[in-house]
Write a structure and sequence with these properties.
With 107 residues, the chain is α+β, with helices and mostly antiparallel strands. The chain contains 3 helices and 4 strands; from the N terminus they run βαβααββ.
Length: 107
């Protein structure tokens, strides 16, 4: 389970590879993460303010494309819901929650 952590780890691809390694084939990763916005204007603001967000958010990167990184690590997202993190600043509001399965072929 990953809850609002993949924005902060220093090496997101490495962390996801390790999650992939320890899960058995067909194992599931449950996640709730705030992510880069799909709205271009907000995504540009996330890019502009990411350095500040890292300092005030204890290393949090507000502009990571976490869903793409999950797929690149050998997972298939099987369930996904998009939402917003209520009462959070706009740059950290976009939220995804879902389930990703470890691909059999990646074993």
């Amino acid at each position: 389970m990953s809850t609002l952590v993949l924005c902060t780890v220093s090496d997101q691809p490495r962390a996801l590879r390790e999650l992939h390694r320890v899960l058995r084939p067909g194992g599931r990763l449950l996640f709730i993460e705030h992510v880069r916005s799909e709205e271009p204007r907000l995504a540009r603001w996330q890019d502009r303010l990411n350095g500040l967000q890292q300092r005030i958010g204890h290393g949090c990167n507000c502009n990571r494309s976490t869903l793409e990184a999950i797929g690149a690590a050998g997972f298939s997202v099987t369930r996904l819901e998009r939402d917003v993190l209520a009462k959070a600043p706009p740059i950290v509001r976009p939220l995804v929650a879902g389930v990703a399965e470890r691909n059999e072929a990646s074993a």
